[in-house]
Write a structure and sequence with these properties.
Layout lengths: L2 E3 L5 E6 L13 H20 L2 E12 L7 E12 L3 E12 L5 E14 L10 E3 L3 H28 L10
Parallel strand pairs: 1-7
Antiparallel strand pairs: 2-4, 3-6, 4-5, 5-6
Keywords: Hydrolase
GO cellular component, one term: cytosol
Organism: Paenibacillus athensensis
């Protein structure tokens, strides 16, 4: 299977923060940002493998700084690492105060996507080739994150076995 550079999956999304997008603290709703993150990550994953993809997990979303209505929010996303049919996608969220031009990392996120064939079955994906220092660091630290995902998934499956599916009113 061929390999692809991280830059080939890189994509960006910039949005303004409007009053309906904020919570009672007058900062961007976390759920709204999470929707932006899943959207841009799915585009990066699809660009990498040129297949339909599904979100296998949102591995982490770290909210680092609040995003306010005076800010724009720019998301940058690219594939950092691949397994057989899975892809780790990194999303960097940069807020920019539109009046001062000051920029800062507001959030980071890692997601895992699985590529699907025409029968909705997992299919092999190209390896990823990092080039920049940022891409190389994310690529070299990815196996540790993959192991953590594997362990968390195993624990989640065990835990799900203890949960009830009964409604409280049944």
């Amino acid at each position: 299977m061929e390999s692809r550079f991280s830059r080939e999956s890189r994509c960006y999304k910039t949005s303004r923060v409007f009053p309906p997008d904020v919570n009672n603290h007058h900062t961007l709703f976390g759920g709204k940002l999470m929707a932006y993150i899943d959207d841009i990550a799915s585009i990066a994953a699809t660009k990498h493998c040129r297949r339909s993809v599904v979100t296998a997990s949102t591995d982490s979303v770290d909210f680092l700084l609040p995003i306010r209505p005076t800010d724009s929010v720019c998301l940058e996303s690219f594939v950092t690492w691949t397994g057989n049919s899975s892809m780790e996608v990194f999303v960097k969220v940069i807020k920019e105060d539109l009046l001062s031009g000051t920029r800062a990392i507001a959030a980071t996120s890692f997601l895992t996507f699985v590529a699907l064939d025409d029968n909705k079955r997992p299919v092999a994906v190209p390896n990823v080739l990092p080039e920049t220092e940022e891409e190389k660091k994310l690529h070299e630290t990815a196996p540790h994150r993959a192991e953590m995902r594997r362990l968390r998934r195993t624990e989640s499956k065990k835990f799900a076995g203890f949960l009830t599916v009964q409604h409280p009113w049944d």
